[in-house]
Amino acid sequence: MSDIDIPFTVSFTHRLRTTADVAGNDFAALTSVLDADEGQPAKVQLWVDSNLHDVPACNETASSDSAASDASSPGSFANRLTAQLAKSDLVELAGPMHVIPGGEVCKNSPDVLETLLGLINEHNMDRRSYVILAGGGAVLDVAGYAAAIAHRGIRLIRLPSTTLAQADSGVGVKNAINYFGKKNWVGTFAVPWAVINDTEILQTLPDRDFRSGLTEAVKVALLKDPKFFAYLQEHADSLRQREPAVSSEAIKRSCRLHIDHITRGGDPFEGLEARPLDFGHWSAHRLEPMTQYALRHGEAVGIGVALDSLYSSRKFGFPESDAMRVIETLAMIGTPLWCDAIRDTDAVLQGLEEFRQHLGGRLTVTMLKRIGESVNVHEIDRTVMRKCIEDLQTIAAQHESVATN
Description:
The protein is α/β, with parallel strands linked by helices. It is built from 17 helices and eleven strands. A hairpin with a 2-residue loop joins strand 7 (174-179) and strand 8 (182-189). Helix 9 runs antiparallel to helix 10 (226-234) and helix 13 crosses helix 16.
């Protein structure tokens, strides 16, 4: 008998570009990441989130300077990007722009995935072809999964269109769809060919999504950077008002912390027990399907972060004053602290078992000892967690009362 164990490493390059208007004056940033094959134009398909293409049903930002324009107009981001690609000598467009239903609905139906795989097959895309994907986190998930499994990998260029995706998931290496009523049950790890965080694309975003996406910035600041958390707290009202300089700085710093964790943390494909970047997520992932995904991912994360901050203060010495700072910051940014689904504490606590299964071993949940210092725990005191849920409801009601008076 002979046993052979040979460790080996695989080299990846994570390309991140930041632009002001990639569909306009900064288009060269996109073509610069295309690897032409012996001088031939790159074969490209463009997929976009319907929220970038369709007329918004309710323009929540209409009263602000950053209001989303009619996204189906010739001047829309999606159409401007299509026109740039069509006239570029460096690009061979393989078919027309394809629109993917935006929001979590696209991850709940196998039809969307099948359609995307069909497009890759119909246009004879290969491993050196590119999918350019503009959209929010859910669209990045399902389309990234399609690109990852077709031919075992089509080159994917992400253009995240939400604050949440630009600050977090857009630079991640995970792709997934929902299955068995569970979030991200089917998926892959795949490093995108490139990610372009564009400022102009965020102008399509309603206020609700703009604000709730910043919860991931709060999360990563709590885990890794006390000074960044202080910045978010100090500028929470400016973030609520979508002040460009402040929001751009918050997204940039959050994105860098996430990408550093992925590329330098030693566990990009989550082979270890701990998943520190999922602080607050065990309940968030449960709350989303419990609300039939009416609750945005960022909103669910905000509630989860608030809840686990309270629990950390009860169990691990996280100062109660800091837990209240976290909750106050989330409230000032403009994301909810409560949803009625969380009243069903038994159903919410089932998220712990689903989280354990997703990890592939024993339960490991990240909590806080202080801002910038986390601890991994393997048990949750359910009695204490239930009390934290009760306390969060009271705190959320107090904030709502103040906001309405």
